[in-house]
Amino acid sequence: MSKLFPVQEIGSLAKPKWRTKGLRQQLSSQDLSDAEEWAEKLAIQDFHDRAKNILKTSDDRERAKGVLELSTLYGLRLFETAGIDNDGVGGEQQRIEMYEHVIKGVQGMNLLGHVHSFDYKYFNKGVAQSKISRKHPVYVPEFLDVKKYAHRAVKVPITGPYTLVDWSFSGYYIQKQQTSSPKARKIEAKREFLLDIVEQIIRPEIRDLVNAGASWIQIDEPAVTTHPEPQEMELFVEAWNETVKGFSCKFSDHTCYPSEIGYKVLAEYAPKLDKCDHLA
Q1: Which of 57, 167, 181, 186 has the greatest number of CB atoms lying within 10 Å of its CB?
Q2: Is the pTM of this model over 0.90?
Q3: What CATH number should be reported for the domain holding residue 191?
Q4: Tens-place pLDDT, residues 95-134
């Protein structure tokens, strides 16, 4: 992109009703009437063939796959029609929610239940019960689907390590600390947990994406500006720099929902972020 201020797709779109229902149960022609109307607006040429396959299949997995592919295609064409300067991943139609989507792929994490995030949003908070490791790839299957339909290079948003750790209970990592000070124990546990997330989860995800052809990774870190204390910001910088080390792709940061001084503090620390092409 050569524009000074490109118009970017940042992340998620609201999920249409037929996408949400179609993952849980059989759809009817009436359910897809809204999709048919938008197919004409977005020039989805093979909508009727796709809809026919979704409606006739009795296999839950096949139906879910068809629904997710179609909603991803709609997201991509919507952004293109709107004149956005980059292709994202179709509005993250294949993701549950930015935190849970990743944590479900982490061995050693246990989801405890939903807690309030912001506005009317909730997320399923997890706890580290043992040293973590990766169960399976999280982002590559979605990226491979997107690649089939994208007309331009794709920017892949991923949830950053600082946010994943900050929104989790440290559990195992707290219990293994030996220092007597509760405050020192907490910060050391967070740092160890953070670097494990980087090494065991995030870097392998980026490596797989790059190997599959991804050239731009957006790291989403909404949690960072809720902790503008210097010690927390240094943890964020350390985790970022460990995350991007050795990769040749483009990186950018997306941070939202700051405290009153959040963006000001982020601006102060941004020059310390290696390979960070821009902030959004």
Answers
A1: 167
A2: yes
A3: 3.20.20.210
A4: 989 999 999 999 999 999 998 877 777 889 999 999 999 9
